[in-house]
Design a protein that fits this description.
Oligomer: single chain
Distance between the termini: 44 Å
Structural class: mainly beta
């Protein structure tokens, strides 16, 4: 295990120094756990969209400048209109949504990708 920690620490500076660019928006997938339906929505940077009881705001969507088709990460704030409390606030990584996932009894939300359309 110690060798893994050393390898991760050695790789961290290279990853942290990658230049990232902001996209004009992103694409998000939502799952309603009650009826099992998924919905994909496009959302612009700074825009808020409603889905069921959720109010979803995309603060920013970034991607590596050297490879636009690779890993996207976005700042999301998701509020449950039923409680008024934030259900999620932070960075979500498209390739690893479980790394920092939204914990909600009815809905799951994933960032799929950034887009410039």
């Amino acid at each position: 295990m110690r060798w893994l920690a050393i390898a991760l620490l050695a790789a961290a500076p290279a990853f942290a120094q990658q230049e990232a660019r902001s996209a004009s928006g992103g694409e998000i997938r939502l799952l309603d756990k009650i009826n099992g339906e998924t919905t994909d929505i496009r959302i612009g940077r700074g825009e808020t969209k409603l889905f069921g009881r959720l109010s979803i705001t995309l603060g920013d969507c970034r991607f590596p400048a050297s490879n636009p088709n690779s890993d996207a990460f976005g700042w999301l704030e998701i509020r449950d209109e039923g409680t008024g409390e934030p259900a999620f606030s932070g960075w979500m990584i498209a390739s690893s949504p479980a790394l920092k996932a939204m914990d909600h009894p009815r809905y799951d939300v994933w960032l799929l990708r950034c887009s410039n359309d």
